[in-house]
Amino acid sequence: MTDQTKRQQNITAHYHLPGLFEFYELYSIFLPLYRDHSEYFYDWCDIGSIYGAPLDCIWGGGRVENGTADPEDVLAFMQEYGISARLTFSNSLLKKEHLSDKRCNALCALFEEKGMENGVIVHSDLLLEYLQKKYPGLYCVSSTTKVLTEFKELLDEINRDEFRYVVPDFRLNRAFDKWSMLSQPQKDKVEFLCNECCFFGCRDRKACYEAVSRKNLGEGGPEHVCKAPDAGEGYRFSKAMENPGFISVDDIRDIYLPGGFANFKIEGRGLGSALILEFLLYYMVKPAYQVHIREAVYLDNMLDIF
Asked: Measured between alpha carbons, how far is 18 from 4 in angstroms, rounded to an integer?
């Protein structure tokens, strides 16, 4: 048996979870269960990071932020559980004058100085260069908001030394003929987005993210109107499961892990905590114990039902 085969057999799936600030209350119940009841959880996975950004961050992107948890409390909580925290600063429209923002700089300084090695999810090369010079203790993740749908472009991104991880566009998730050609160091940098619900044939994904970036900057501009089929329904996990780019828990265990890939991103910052709980149960918890997690969360009487 080769060293490569041994490594692939022993590889652990690292989940990168949404809602660092947005779902602080949910995680305050879930993480003690994760720590104290290892028998509830699949033994081939763990939590690699939790990502998000608090309210009123002009560097924010991907979603309009609404997290209100105190950053000091959030970071102390992540320290307690030994989980890397990532700031989602993936605004695609930043200009030089935005780099001096006091709130975003204070968050970067806080996250660099305390706790585990923490990171920043970025889109803007301008911000990337600034962060590397001013906050070199933070690792950087290339955001899926770049919408790199051509594999050559994505491979160039993976090969950039500035990034520890790169999140591909979900439409490349099943390009197995291309993924199999990557070296192991390249595979280690890929972080697949598992549960995207966006229309697979969408041509307006960049425009959608740019509209969010304008809102976070407090700028005017046209609202983005999604033209995808069934857009009015909003997010449905059942619909995401039918998406050609969906990565199931069986896919992770039976295809991606044996293929040498270890990092998987779960989206959902803009959703309700009830849906986030369903993601956590589906991807991390053995079916026989999912009811135990639900009971613990629901009986705490904090969970919204939408």
From this structure: 31
